[in-house]
Amino acid sequence: MRIAKGIEMCREECCALAHAFANNRETVKALCGLIDPELLRLSADILLRSTGLFRRANLAIDGAYETMAAAELERLKNGPPALRCAHSVKVHEAALRCIVSKCSLPAC
To answer: Which of 68, 75, 56, 81 is CA-nearest to residue 13?
Structure first.
């Protein structure tokens, strides 16, 4: 049996990354110059509606997720965060660090 290569994300990781897309517009704009904007929009929309997901590895999206997670970690560190969910800042920070780790490694 062949196992598909991909990345699994839990509810907290999906939520934290959705917040990253919503709160880091300049980073999203910069990524749109590198990745199809429609692909980025669809990826962000999926995160908003997900309670967890498994997706196949995609170098462009992995790089975008890693970039967005890093930008959100910086935003949370530099000011009073505005979270629109029931999670704590610490939960989001831990989830974002996991995303950076998952997306910076080759998928297994």
So the answer is: 68
pTM comes to 0.86
- In DSSP terms, 9 is beta-bridged to 53
The closest of 5, 108, 8 to 65, measured between CA atoms, is 8
Provide the residue ranges of all domains of the chain, joining segments of one domain with +: 8-104
Strands (E) located in the chain: 6-10, 52-56
For the stretch 15-66, pLDDT in tens is 999 999 999 999 999 999 999 999 889 988 998 888 888 877 778 888 999 9
Place of tokens 């989001």: 92
Q: What are phi and psi of 10, to 5 degrees?
A: -85, 175
Q: Which amino acid is at 4?
A: A
Q: In 3D, which of 106, 98, 104 has the Cα closest to residue 9?
A: 98
Cα torsion for 86, 90, 94, 99, to the nearest 10°? 60
